[in-house]
Each structure stands twice: as structure tokens, then as C-alpha cells.
Fold this protein.
Amino acid sequence: MEKVVIIGSGPAGWTAALYTARAQLAPLVLTGKQPGGLLTTTSIVENFPGFPEGVDGYELMTRMQKQAERFGARTSFGVVEAADFSKKPFVLTVDGEKVEAETVIIATGASHKHLGVPGEHELENKGTTYCATCDGALPMFRNQPLVVVGGGDSACEEAMYLTRFGSTVYLVHRRDSLRASKIMAERTLSNPKIKPIWDSAVLEVLDVKQDKVTGVRLKNLKTNEETVLPCAGLFVAIGHVPNTDLFKPAIKTDENGFIVPQEGTMTNIPGVFVAGDCADHVYRQAITAAGVGCAAAIDAERYLAAENQ
Ligand code: NAP
């Protein structure tokens, strides 16, 4: 039986692995379908402390993995198909095999919601991005018109952040009022560099032939008029989907599916802990996920010590 199984291999998962490995608990990390998580899809990470020149997202995750493995973490490129938390030991089904665990740390992250329009996928990392904090400062966006899609707090936050880099930031929203909190909405709409484009949907991201974002084709949903808005970057901020379906309903989540820890990082099931974006709809940064991964490891270690007294 495993003492600690960590589901997920983003910054939260690897940091939990590093700490539980150093506590000599020989954690087993189940990487899931996308080893390294969302960060591996970002080109350069410039806001992870300790890398003044920035670090490639894939490299950062590989380094975290190596560091955890150096102290005895074990990696399995498995995908969890089912989780039974109804009795101890917990039982995970991983690619058809049963894995028993005394404690589990859920660090499955979240997925960006996509628009699902032509050109979006093809131009990912070529001007289409899902994280202004990660990518906004890249040279290709400097002094260029940029488009943010969405009307929530994330879209407002991204638009505000991007005013540091872009010439104009267009906020494209499908309705004529923002969903964001009042203070965020007011702050956003009063910023002279942000121009809202109401009642509009992105129909297509241009230009796949040029292999970079040059604009978006918009449709006004009230008049049906179509226009092309030139821009160098498209920042999609229409929400996140936490990767938690597998654990419901046993593990308590909020109405958006984010896991709600009950005490520290412990979920409603003692012995099951959570860290990172699958429980965080506010900060969603690599460094905050890593920090909570550390906390979850310490909580799991203390839980095991108390159980085995
Ligand atoms: P959100 O509140 O769910 O907003 C998503 C926005 O995207 C909405 O305006 C929605 O339009 C739009 N949208 C959704 N699907 C779309 C689609 N397919 N095409 C075009 N537009 C689409 O998500 P969020 O902004 O990521 O925020 C999530 C949670 O985190 C919220 O509770 C928020 O308050 C919180 N948050 C807080 C802060 C902060 O306090 N600093 C920062 C970020 C996030 P509709 O409005 O028409 O539905």
C-alpha cells in the first residue's frame, strides 16, 4: 500500500511530491494525460521566482520532477479512472490497475475554457493565449492592439494587466454588461487604454496562413454585423473548468466544481488533501499552486503521523 499518492503533475503536484519525498514517504505521482500540467503549454514563464531570465514552462516542470525524484518520489504516467474514498485504504483505479493509498493529494489542476472557433487552436502560443500574467509581457504584444474575451473578473484582471504592454486593449464581451464584481468592472471601464466591445462574439482568429494572430473576426450579436478587428494577441478569459469530475460527489466542491478544503488543505474526507488550481479560482499561479502543494504535503505527513501513533 502507498503512503501518499499524488494525482497530478503540475507545480502543486511536484511540490507536494518534493516535500513528502523528503519526509521519506516515497510518494507515487500519477502524472495524468498531460505530464507537467498546463504550464507545459506556456512558452516562457517569467514570474516564477528564481529565474531572472525566465524559464521555459516545460523545463520548469521537468526540473521540479527531477528534484522530487532525487529524494525518492516515484512517477507513473498513469491516468486515474476512478477513485474510491468510501473506506480506508483509498483505492484508485489507474489504467485498469488498483492502487491502494493511505493518503491522497489531489492536484489535478484546471483546464482553460476555449472559445472553440476556427484559428483559436492553430494559433495557440502564436498570439492566442489563456493567461495574460504568463504571456502578456512577451515582446510580440508590446505596443500592439490586444483583445481580451470575457466579461468576468478574470477578463477584467487580464485587460487591466495588459494595459502595461499593449497600445489598446479591446474587451470583447457577448453581452452589454460585465459579470465582474462592481469594483473590478468600474476600474476596468474607466481605464482609458481599455475599449469595451459589447454584444460581440469572436467568430474566427486570424490569420492561420500567416501563422500568427493578426486580428479577430467579430460578430455583433444584436445587429449581426461582422467586422475584423486587427490585433497581435487574443487573450481568452472565459473561465476555467477544474479537473474534478472524477472525485464528485465524494469530495465536496463548489457550484463551479472547485474542491472546497475543510481544514487547511484537507478535503471533507480525512486523508484526502487538495492543492493547486483544482481548488483555486482566485490566484491560479504556478507559485501559489506550488505553495499550497507544500502545505498539502505537510498536512498529509502530519495526518499520517497522527494515524500511525
Ligand atoms: P466567470 O466569472 O465565469 O466569467 C466568465 C466570463 O466569460 C463571463 O462574462 C461569460 O459571459 C464569458 N463567457 C463564458 N463562456 C463564454 C463563451 N463561450 N464565449 C464568450 N464568452 C464566454 O469566470 P472568471 O472571470 O474566470 O471568474 C471565475 C471566478 O473567479 C469568479 O467567481 C470570479 O469572481 C473569481 N475571480 C476573482 C478575481 C478577483 O477577485 N480578483 C479574479 C479572477 C477571478 P456571461 O457573463 O455572458 O456569462
